[in-house]
Design brief:
291 residues, alpha+beta, Jelly Rolls, 6 helices, Phytanoyl-CoA dioxygenase, Phytyl_CoA_dOase-like, Fungal_Metabolite_Diox
Length: 291
């Protein structure tokens, strides 16, 4: 199989697979459909074997384009980001296939257990609050910060503690989790249609920090629920993961009803999954330090 890097008029990249070479164009499978791409929009071709060199990943692909002459630096940097996303896509696929051999956990505790690293709270927010938060989030201008763990069609918006609805949310959080917690950040995580599965990751290495992840609408398996690996909130599990990025461990999909939430240690391995619907998946995330 031959992979094709397509560059558009804005110097952004897409990955496709080659179907047929023609005189002045190529027939390419990209984003779920066949497209005819003129040759001047084909940036790079590489074979399946190149994709399998996971040890070097995007660095190998990044070096590959240096053989082309007189490429503007902007294009090189865009390609670097694109190649990194290819590596993440391939890694996530291998991780998914590895986890298929492991048992799926159907239920998690409703109070904290150190051997799990996560628990569930039902009805954390009422429906009216969820609707109000969705409207607030969708009305905000983009102010996303890049995160390595995020990928194509994923957005993270950092929310202002001084906004009235966020003040109301903070009061609810502290009423339910305790007034002594130190809130560090509140974000909206938007997983758009056709988003890819993420590689497994931990958010931080702090053992006294947790994240509260609230579903602002029902989230089923097709909407890209977060996948957690219970019990991986420790250094030994992370060291094993870092050896080759593959983990065999029971897993849990956080399918949630509107207003329900999952609380987890930020050291727990987890990932967002692909959104197979035509709707945005919107989750509110609050990260806090324990007293």
């Amino acid at each position: 199989m031959t992979f094709v890097d397509i560059i558009d008029e804005n110097n952004q990249f897409e990955l496709g697979t080659l179907i047929e070479k023609r005189k002045n164009e190529m027939l390419v499978w990209v984003n779920g459909s066949q497209r005819v791409i003129p040759n001047n929009r084909i940036f790079c071709l590489y074979e399946t074997d190149d994709m399998l060199i996971l040890e070097n990943g995007h660095e190998m692909l990044y070096k590959k384009i240096r053989k082309y002459k007189n490429i503007p630096e902007e294009i090189i940097e865009n390609f670097y980001d694109h190649a990194a996303s290819i590596y993440n896509f391939k890694t996530a696929k291998l991780q998914y296939e590895t986890l298929l051999e492991c048992p799926q956990i159907q239920y998690i505790p409703q109070d904290y257990r150190a051997d799990y690293g996560l628990y569930k709270i039902v009805h954390f927010l009422n429906k009216d609050m969820c609707y109000d938060l969705i409207q607030y989030i969708l009305s905000r201008p983009p102010n996303k910060k890049p995160q390595l763990s995020y990928g194509k069609n994923r957005t993270e918006l950092y929310l202002n503690f001084d906004d009235e609805i966020i003040k109301k949310l903070i009061k609810i959080i502290k009423d339910k989790l305790g007034d002594r917690i130190n809130l560090l950040e509140i974000t909206a995580l938007i997983n758009k249609p056709c988003s890819y599965r993420q590689p497994l990751h931990r958010d931080f290495n702090d053992k006294d920090v947790q994240t509260l992840m609230i579903a602002l609408h029902d989230i089923d398996m097709d909407m890209g629920p977060t996948q957690f690996l219970p019990g991986t909130n420790n250094d030994k599990s992370f060291e094993e993961y870092e050896k080759n990025e593959l983990v065999k461990n029971p897993y849990y999909y956080a399918t949630l009803r509107m207003g329900d939430c999952v609380v987890f240690d930020v050291t727990l391995l987890h990932c967002g999954t692909e959104n197979k619907t035509n709707k945005d998946r919107i989750i509110l995330s609050a990260t806090y330090q324990l007293p």
